[in-house]
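User: Can you model how MTE sits in this protein?
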Amino acid sequence: AGNPANQPPNVPEWSKSLGEGVAVRPYGKPSKFEKEVIRRDVEWLTASRESSVSFTPLHELEGIITPNGLCFERHHGGIAEIDPADHRLMIHGLVERPLILTLDELKRYPRVNRIHFMECAANSGMEWRGAQLNGCQFTHGMIHCVQYTGVSLRTLLEEAGVKTNGKWLLVEGADAAAMDRSLPIEKALDDCIIAYKMNGEALYPEQGYPMRLVVPGWQGNLWVKWLRRIKVGDQPWHTREETSKYTDLLPNGKARRFTWSMDAKSVITSPSPQAPIKHGKGFTIVSGLAWSGNGKVKRVDVSLDGGRNWWPARLDGPVLDKALTRFYYEFDWNGEPLLLQSRVQDETGYVQPSKAELRKIRGVNSIYHNNGIQTWHVQANGEVENVEVA
Ligand code: MTE
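Assistant: Here's the modeled complex, given as structure tokens:
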């Protein structure tokens, strides 16, 4: 493919004259030939763009870090464009010394750097009743993994002095949705961060500039963006986002109260519907992602025949606590159709369930916390579609 005049032994046009100089592109962007690597939304999914979601193009990415411009976005009231000079973080309620901090003041506290995935509880939610969306960008793309820099929430709570009856935090955003959630003090004191950088640079506005809450391993909804207020109280608030939304409706009509943690899950990112096999039979690379909100990934297995036989995948790159982990399975494809699956086990011993196993416990009326095994049907011509096996 391409222009034969640009291929060896010819000398292509771009080698014959000087290219652009330095700083002509003061903020770098990917090559124009990579213009398909973008976030995408599904128009029919939501009534408005302001309360909606875009998806990370997982099928185009490698390694474990999501580039800032490709992190999926989920907001309930649009993107708040905040001038940090006018933004304050307030910590009040059951504390000895209420705090009101500017971004500059926050930056004077000792810093921590942590790599974590963040998954929306609704990731794969559209797949509860069967295979629906054709692409891992859409079935699994409500996830990103970046390195956060910020201040441990524990440091700030110690500074404010939580009173002995302070057991819960109300965390609230400064966007038009004023999104708020209750967070138990144990988690707040354990590993939560108030982050102001992602992958080394300031948070992007869509990810909560100038500061967001990082709640490692727990559902994305708790990771309040544009964070402006933390109120310490003695019991949970039961806000809209933790009652009518982001809870799991069970077959008996009862809803689980607070499902915070994201159980272990994995997906093959390539081949997948948006990343078909184009080279025909022969040496083939299966690339995928695995993660667990309860610790590190221990192992991943891959099946080529819809779960009858499993083969160990190779983990490559860092295997970090509550972070995406990259796996590979390389094999010699004989060109026959495949039913590709991946299955993760995390360090607690938990094994990712099949969709049938998940539905046995959770029924079919759920949206959130779908961590069932995904199946891709690879056809002889290399095209891939989203299917389910019984
Ligand atoms: N915080 C505020 N203030 N407003 C929001 O709408 N959406 C939540 C959470 N924090 C939201 C928010 C939800 S549901 C998710 S999944 C994550 O942010 C999405 O974060 P992201 O846009 O960085 O992917």
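A couple of observations from the model: Residues 75-242 form a domain with the Sulfite Oxidase; Chain A, domain 2 fold (CATH 3.90.420.10). Residues 71-76, 120, 144, 173, 175, 177, 179, 206-207, 220-221, 223-226 surround MTE (CB under 6 Å).
User: Helpful, thanks.
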